[in-house]
Structure formats: C-alpha cells, structure tokens
Amino acid sequence: QVQLVESGGGLVQAGGSLRLSCAASGSAFSIDLMGWYRQVPGKQRELVATITNDGKTSFADSVQGRFTISMDKPKNTVYLHMNSLKPEDTADYYCVVNSRRTPLSDIILTSWGQGTQVTVSS
Q1: What gap in Å lies between CA 23 and CA 97, rounded to an integer?
Q2: How distant is the alpha carbon of residue 46 from its chain centre?
Q3: What is the 3-state secondary structure (H, E, C) of the chain?
Q4: Which of 23, 29, 3 is nearest to 100 (CA)?
Q5: What pLDDT, on the 0 to 100 scale, is given for residue 15?
Q6: Closest listed residue to residue 49, CA positions, set 77, 80, 28
C-alpha cells in the first residue's frame, strides 16, 4: 500500500504563489503517474494536473499557463507550483498516485492523499 503525505497549502492573496508537495512511501512500488485534484464543497472533484513517470504533463484548462507540475523521482514526490493564483483556485487539493507493485504488474493501485487546503483571498 502507498501512503501519501501532502504539504504546502495555506492562505495567499490573489496573484500570489504556493507550492504543494506530496511524498509517496510504502512497500515496494512503481509509480506510473502522480497528480493533483481539487474539490470545493458541494462540487465534484476536478483534475488539476498530472505528470507521468516519463515526464508527460497535462493540465486543466483553468490552470494552464499558471500552474506547473514536477516530479522528484528519487524522492517519490510530486510538486504543484501554483502561480498567479485566483480566488476561484480556492479548494481542497488532493494528491493522487497510480502505482504498481512492480513495473510489469497489470494491477494499478490508485492512492489518495488526505487533502490540503488552499485559500486565495481577493
């Protein structure tokens, strides 16, 4: 099983920046993809950004050009760099990891972090 520990949320003014971190740990595993979702109370959780083990990234249209995502493979850590933050970015942000027990395993395990709150004031 993979455990995820998130950090970096907080309160920031509009136009500011924050960096979220998510470190994965556990028994032997091979990461396919790491990413971030966000959720506002009463709304569905939405995908923010993902990065694959070979470095391919994808972003929601709403954050394209403002957010970047990176992965530190030796540390099994993913970072979400959020710039030019807007009040509508306010949400709980959740880390997600798709992993396998071995690189050749057909079984993909999806693990979620506990969430970290981001509040952007206007």
Answers
A1: 10
A2: 11
A3: CEEEEEECCEEEECCCCEEEEEEEEECCCEEEEEEEEEECCCCCCEEEEEEECCCCEEECCCCCCCEEEEEECCCCEEEEEECCCCHHHCEEEEEEEEEECCCCCCCCEEEECCCEEEEEEC
A4: 29
A5: 98
A6: 80
Residue with tokens 């949320």: 9
Round to whole Å and give the CA distance between 6 and 86: 21
Mean pLDDT of successive 10-residue stretches along the chain, which has 122 residues: 94 98 90 97 96 97 98 96 98 97 89 97 95
Q: What pLDDT is attached to residue 104?
A: 87
Residue 59 pLDDT: 98
**What are the residues whose beta carbons fall under 8 Å from the beta carbon of 108, sequence distance 6 or more?**
32, 98, 99, 100
